[in-house]
Design goal:
35% of the residues lie in helices and 16% in strands. With 308 residues, the protein is an alpha/beta fold.
Length: 308
């Protein structure tokens, strides 16, 4: 098994081909982790994290979301290909069901990063009644200010430019200017930033369209509300991981802390880690070993619980 994982394909009901990767442990599968990646990246970037998880007996699955990675060969770059963001939630559910069939009777964890944290939260609200845990990395958190952005994007879609590519990530680098690259906001590790820029399936080569951004940002607003989190299963453990300097979650992770408060208000057990001086991709940060150790320590008590 290589760090890139085994690549397979799901045939979505609407005809699009969704590619996913699978990393399996050498021995018994203690639990499964489904990873949902962020905007303008792909599942192959999670090989190192998957290696740490498989070493502890976890089977790891991660799809290339619609509009991303090898799935973009079917849907088009930065495009849903189908009827909007609900098709992405349908894909996450389909892979979740496949994982359950292949690994019955073990706990299932859902882990979303950045845009994937939006999708994972919404997916857990809609289809997560049997989850043993939810992990959100680099999350947007509670961001009601995005409602104005969604309105503007929806107006662009209505005006007929929904298929136009956006620079949806460019503004995140402003706090780090003057910067070495456009993506210094991702990590303090220049090697990780350079690897992202050099990856033909990431960054500038894989922009979101206005219609895609409208869908996922709209989901970000609607999923982080009291009514939405009320749909999460009772007692669902949640882990929030973010960098203190991550522009996605607000200064000092203020939007993430607001999400933690919202989830605790729902009565859920929430643990939050904010890493000093860390930026957006905490699994690719200079302190990534600390982050992975925290994740593994949080996961361990969840692994003894049978799947719902």
């Amino acid at each position: 098994m290589t760090s890139s994982g085994d690549v397979a394909m799901l045939q979505a009901p609407d005809g699009f081909r969704v590619h996913y990767r699978r990393w399996l442990p050498d021995g018994e599968v203690r639990a499964t982790v489904q990873i949902v990646h962020g905007a303008s990246e792909h599942s192959g970037r999670y090989g190192r994290l998957a290696g740490a998880l498989t070493a502890h007996g976890l089977a790891v699955y991660a799809m290339d979301l619609r509009g991303h990675g090898r799935t973009a060969e079917s849907t088009g770059i930065g495009r849903f290909g189908g009827l909007g963001v609900d098709t992405v939630l349908d894909d996450v559910r389909a892979l979740h069901l496949l994982i359950g069939e292949r690994h019955p009777g073990v706990p299932r964890i859902l882990l979303g990063h950045s845009m994937g944290s939006i999708i994972a939260l919404a997916g857990a609200e809609r289809d997560g009644g049997d989850l043993a845990g939810l992990v959100l990395s680099g999350p947007v958190g509670v961001a009601p200010h995005l409602a104005d952005t969604v309105t503007a994007l929806e107006e662009a879609v209505a005006a007929g430019v929904g298929e136009n590519a956006l620079d949806a990530l460019g503004a995140f680098n402003e706090p780090f200017e003057p910067a070495r690259t456009r993506y210094d906001w991702l990590s303090r590790d220049p090697a990780e930033v350079d690897a992202y820029i050099a990856d033909p399936l990431s960054g500038d080569e894989m922009p979101l369209t206005a219609a895609y951004a409208a869908g996922v940002f709209g989901l970000a607003v609607s999923a982080a509300t009291p009514d939405a989190v009320a749909r999460l299963r009772d007692g669902l453990p949640v882990l929030l991981l973010s960098g203190e300097l991550d522009p996605v979650g607000g200064a000092n992770a203020v939007q993430v802390s607001a999400l933690a408060g919202l989830l605790r208000g729902r009565g859920l057990p929430v643990e939050q880690r904010v890493y000093p001086d860390a930026r957006h991709e905490v699994f690719n940060e200079t302190n990534r070993d600390e982050v992975v150790d925290d994740l593994l320590a949080w996961l361990e008590p969840r692994l003894s619980a049978p799947a719902a």
